[in-house]
Design brief:
30% of the residues lie in helices and 27% in strands. With 371 residues, it is an alpha/beta fold. The strands form four sheets. Strands 1-2-6-3-7-15 form a six-stranded mixed beta sheet, sandwiched between helices. A four-stranded antiparallel beta sheet has the order 10-11-9-12, with helices on one face. It starts with a helix and ends with a helix. It binds zinc ion. Zinc ion is lined by residues 76, 106-107, 138, 163.
């Protein structure tokens, strides 16, 4: 029977960046699952550029293939792209108790632990209905999960979404908002600025005002999160055309990560007020295009799934500030927890790794959760 580390080595060796088909990775997993007596249903679709993408739902053979299921584990199968200079990205290397490789913690480690737990009990019967859901295209916007949920092929009561949390059960997650702000001024020779209206000056004032808004949001306090409030970021800005022209256009992106329960419309309105107020002061026009507005999630205080995971992992309950498929599944499930071995702070970089001990602990926890 393959162990978690051996399975992780195989998973890391199969490149599955979002631009590629995840077919090879999914086929490898399906092979292990079938050997353990699980049935595998495939839901394929054409992704960007016509590349084949596959979601799968696997269940123990003797269980009904109903959409309704008590507990579903969800792992995404894609990774972010890795730098060409990372020579051992697809070769799992162990050093001082840490296993290094692309996807080691995000999220092939979690997947390896689950597959090892299932492989250890071929033909085993479970006291509850369980499913393993593997999704495509998480890293480029949770596309696979969104499709599966829309197709209504799975209605889980409890969902365990795997992401590296250092095995701390995350009972809440922040939402995600993104808006493009376009400021339009009037070009003029920079020797005669009085004939123009600088979109760059207006945008700078707007950005300063957004910084002030972010400061006000710090009065919020949800102790599950670090930091415990909604955060705001202006990550990209472009404007102007030449050093001696009063800038006619400036455009930037504003991202915010709202606390669960926060009114998403209110954030968009606050942003709109800031933008229009400052743009007027600079005789410019501005447009706010909200591109994403996704609510966060938070389980009820008495969630049994959260309590069970806290007991099994021995870790404190937390909240996650990054996006995940949990916000999607929270719309259809009663309880959703994000948990998994490894630390997200090493993910999406050449530092990506997972502690061997935590991976093995996770495999043991999954074995108990399967029931
Ligand atoms: Zn992930």
């Amino acid at each position: 029977v393959p162990d978690a580390v051996g399975i992780l080595k195989s998973l890391v060796a199969i490149p599955s960046v979002s631009a590629l088909s995840n077919r090879p990775l999914v086929d490898f997993c399906a092979g292990l699952l079938r050997q353990a007596g699980w049935s595998v249903d495939e839901f394929a679709y054409a992704g960007a550029g016509g590349v084949e993408k596959v979601n799968i739902i696997a269940r123990p053979l003797r269980q009904q293939s109903d959409a309704a299921v008590a507990t579903a584990f969800v792992c995404h199968t894609d990774t972010v792209p890795f730098a060409a200079s990372w020579a051992s990205a697809t070769n799992l290397v162990e050093s001082e108790g840490m296993l290094h490789g692309c996807g080691a913690c995000d999220v092939k480690g979690s997947l390896a632990g689950i597959l090892a737990a299932i492989a250890a009990g071929p033909g085993r019967s479970y006291s509850q209905s369980v499913a393993l859901v593997l999704t495509a295209d998480e890293e480029i916007g949770c596309i696979g999960a969104t499709r599966l949920i829309a197709a209504n092929v799975i209605r889980p009561r409890q969902v365990i979404v795997c992401e590296p949390t250092g095995l701390r059960p995350a009972s809440a997650g922040k939402g995600y908002g993104l808006a493009r702000v376009h400021v339009k001024g009037r070009e003029a020779h920079s020797a005669f600025p009085q004939h123009g209206a600088s979109a760059v000056y207006a945008a700078a004032a707007i950005v300063r005002a957004i910084e002030g808004w972010a400061e006000q949001l710090k009065s919020q306090h949800n102790p599950l999160f670090d930091p415990p409030h909604t955060t705001v970021n202006v990550g990209v800005i472009h404007g102007g055309s030449a050093k001696n022209i009063v800038a006619g256009e400036c455009e930037f992106l504003v991202e915010w990560r709202p606390l669960p329960g926060e009114d998403l419309g209110a954030a968009a309105r606050a942003l709109q007020d800031i933008v229009q107020g400052q743009a007027r002061t600079y005789n410019c026009e501005a447009e706010v295009e909200v591109q994403r507005a996704e609510p966060g999630f938070q389980n009820p205080a008495d969630s049994r799934l959260v309590e069970r995971l806290a007991a099994l992992t021995g870790r404190e309950i937390t909240g996650i500030p990054f996006g995940s498929e949990a916000t999607r599944f929270a719309r259809v499930a009663e309880e959703v927890v994000v948990v998994g071995p490894g630390d997200m702070r090493s993910a999406h970089s050449e530092r990506e790794c997972i502690p061997r001990a935590e991976l093995e602990h996770w495999a043991a926890i999954v074995s108990q959760l399967l029931g």
